[in-house]
Amino acid sequence: MLEKMRQPDVVFSFSIPVYNGxxxxxxxxxxxxxxxxxxxxxxVMDNASxxxxxxxxxxxxxxxxxxxxxRNETNLGYDRNFHHCFKYANGDYVWLIGDDDLLKPGALSxxxxxxxxxxxxxxIYVNYSLVNRKTNKTxxxxxxxxxxxxxxxxxxxxxxxxxxxxxxxxSMVFLRDAWMSSNCxxxxxxxxxxxxxxxxxxxxxxxxxxxxxxxxxxxxxxNLDHKPEFYQNYLSNFLTLTSIISExxxxxxxxxxxxS
Length: 260
Description:
Elements: E1 12-18, H1 25-33, E2 40-46, H2 53-63, E3 67-71, H3 78-87, E4 93-96, E5 102-103, H4 107-117, E6 121-132, E7 138-140, E8 150-152, H5 155-162, E9 172-175, H6 176-181, H7 193-202, E10 206-219, H8 228-247, H9 255-259
Parallel strand pairs: 1-2, 1-4, 2-3, 6-10
Antiparallel strand pairs: 4-9, 5-10, 6-7, 6-9, 8-10
């Protein structure tokens, strides 16, 4: 049984959901560790991996106490493991990081300055570059083409600008209380729990977009080699997203905005 160990001095958590990530998890953790100060922790939430992931992370944790490893007894699925990344995090803010993505130098200090300057912000989007895993070459310098930071006072304005880009989990920084108070658990099994929490949060808090691409999205190869079931699920989840937008009243009663 997992038990949450509170550490009052920790104010920022990097949470990494992982399943069978032995090929990339060490590089990811080390890229984050290079950014960490004494106010940080790295929580690796292992969804019952069957490979060498646990051994790799435990070895890293022995070397650095900022790293915390927790393992689910059984595979809980994508969404529930994401939720555990917040449930068992100690930080006031939680940055989700994919187990195969990298953090760039200066990322944490920049985001912490955003939080210091805008303490009423509940969600921060961090821009990212696309990097071909095979060639190690950058294929797109910044996925969302904004070149100045943006502060959003309302959810609709944020949604119009950020669109679906925060679906990439390594771009998402949440006020932990916002995630935990959201209705995200209603969306277990949709593969879009992070989007439900995002839409909930931007509808109730100010949000912020960091233009600088502080994350490398280490693009998986053969993304087009999906089975038909993938597209069936994608369509179903898209419809789920529209219902989340409606439930969180991001467009109000304006019929033109609803259609858009």
